[in-house]
Amino acid sequence: MILEKFALSGKTAIVTGARTGLGKGMAVGLAEAGADLVIVNRSPMLETEEEIRKLGRRCLPIEADLSNTNVIPEIVKRTLDEFGKIDILVNNAGIIRRAPSIEFTEKDWDDVINVNLKAVFFFSQAVAREMIKNNGGKIINIASMLSFQGGILVPSYAASKGGVASLTKTLANEWAKYNINVNAIAPGYMATNNTEPLRKDDERNKSILDRIPEGRWGLPEDLKGAVVYLASEASDYVTGHILCVDGGWLAR
Ligand code: NAP
Question: Coiled coil: which residue ranges (predicted)?
Answer without folding.
Answer: none
